[in-house]
Amino acid sequence: MFRRTFTSTLAVALCASTAMAQDLPQANSEYFTAAQELLAERIAAENNTRPAKNVILFVADGMGVGTNYGIRLFEGQQQGMLGEEHNLPHDLFRHSALIKTYNINAQTPDSAPTAGAMNTGAKQVFNTINLDETAVFDDCSSEQPLALFSEMMSDAGRSVGFVASPSVAHATPAAVYARTANRNWFHDAPEGCRDIATQLVDQMEAGVIDVALGGGARDFAGEGVAVEKGTGRRPDGQNLLERIAGLDVQYVFDAETLAASDRSQPVIGLFANADMAYEHDRPDTEPSLTDMTIAAIEHLSTNEEGYYLMVEAGRVDHALHGGNAYRAFEDGVQFAEAIRAAQEMVDEDTLIIVTADHEHVISFQGYCGRGSSVVGLCMDISDDQIEHSGEPVLAADGLPYTVVTFGNGAGSVLIEQEDGTYSGSRPELTQEEVTDPDYLQQALIPMTSETHSGVDVALWATGPWAHLFGGTMDQETIFHVMHHAVFGAQDAAQ
Ligand SMILES: [Zn+2]
């Protein structure tokens, strides 16, 4: 009965929109017909309520709605479009939500408790990972550990892996496997506390983590000890790579050894001493985020029971901290490539979530015309063509300005004077100067490192139970949807 009602409502809706399309003067607008096609697709679409076999959580660190917009235009313009009309792969996912990112004690979050919320289902304390709400930063005696999604998946016979462009011990990947009162204990922790790299090896030994790919070789070897791609930093002198060699875990260190690794065996890849290169500066010997994502899916897919994979584009965040929009957007394009590659490799049993841990203080300025380079000057809207006029828009100081600026950071126009005060004015900018990949966009408040912001980020999802995302949600809800898609839906199906 319900089904019949639904079907007839659908038919009426389709007729109504077709009739409207024929009658209205705007019916021949390409914008209008494209929107009609999307509407018909949405009316016909059905929610996927299969139990999820696999979950892939894509996190572009620091890619809030603003940064995602910048990446969209950057990629579209690289492909010869004006840019605004372009869609990133996740822009086309049917389900999305706005995500509140605050931490228990922070309006503006950091990447540790935000990733922790996604992996445990509960908000956490600033600069800590996967501890309960009584945690005290930098005090490991306060550590009350939370249960992790990775451990639940592993207990259920599924494989778990992660890919990250910073160190594998950095905050976002660490939230997949570690608990710590200080996210900076990469390779060193006070007496009686566990550093993060050691916890990764513990979790590989326990069989929880099967694939770990990223940077951070220095976190795994003793101080001054030379290893592939770097020199150890561990003050305890431990060589964790020797421990890894004693486990059934392969160790790879460049694009070639990653490509040659046995997909049926666990693997750790440490491709740089600290963070991996920005995509703009990446040598061919270093695998890209896409290369790592493909390899991780190939490895994890050898488990018939399914897997959980977290992929972090961590250097989007680093480029934004540096006030450099170009590298942030180029790493964002690589993130989009990794999502496209994953979509081609998985089927309707895989829940794919794309989101960010937090946004930055990036802003987009002025009434710019279509196709203004998103890393260039804001160009005036043309009176007689779609594309901008080619003439920069001028501010009240008579000078042009860039599309992107930052609220604070290294590009501040306020310069420290001899008497210790800050003052300044904006220099004249040329298009050639501001489109250089090394250019730092103008900012207001002077800071050595540009900051995060507390504003909501977006989440996009496709696959089993993706329709549970919607409206404005707290970040920890991501865990609950992933858990229901895998375990709740499985119980219901039995
Ligand atoms: Zn950050």
UniProtKB/TrEMBL annotation:
It holds the Pfam family Alk_phosphatase. InterPro entries: Alkaline_phosphatase, Alkaline_phosphatase_core_sf. The keyword Metal-binding applies. SMART domains: alkPPc. Zn(2+) binds at D61, D317, H321, D357, H358, H452. CDD domains: ALP. GO terms for molecular function: alkaline phosphatase activity; metal ion binding. Residues 1-21 form the signal peptide. Mg(2+) binds at D61, H170, T172, E312. The active site is at S111 (phosphoserine intermediate). Its cofactor is Mg(2+); Zn(2+). Binds 1 Mg(2+) ion. Binds 2 Zn(2+) ions. Belongs to the alkaline phosphatase family. This is Alkaline phosphatase. It comes from Devosia crocina.
